[in-house]
Amino acid sequence: MVVKERRKEPRFNVHHPVYYYRNLVKNECRSLDIGLDGVKLETDSEVNPNETLELTMLIRESLVKVNGKVIYVESMPEGTYHVGVEFANLSQEGRQALMGYFSDIMTHGAERRGILTRGE
Predict the structure, then answer these.
(1) Options 3.40.47.10, 2.40.10.220, 3.20.20.70, 3.30.160.70; which CATH number does 11-109 get?
(2) How many secondary structure helices (H) and strands (E) does the chain include?
(3) What's the average model confidence in pLDDT over 54-63?
């Protein structure tokens, strides 16, 4: 069975610390993949679909802050959660930081298996 990819932007498998605020409490997690339209997180804390999270990421020496809507939450066997977050208000500066970072990944010999593109 072929599953049609719904993402508009490619995703890159990169693991970075990400902080998110939830009920005024700072939580730490990590990215599993990221694109211009959102990020997949791995966290120890359960979050709810449709919840809004305030995310902070350090990308290429730029602090990128963005609100995101939780699209899905997947409970993992090891007790963590995979959380798909769609960016709601990525600033132009944040977008430029991400685009530069992705360009660096592609230019400096990222392995093909490390890059997720539409339809994969």
Answers:
(1) 2.40.10.220
(2) 1, 8
(3) 88
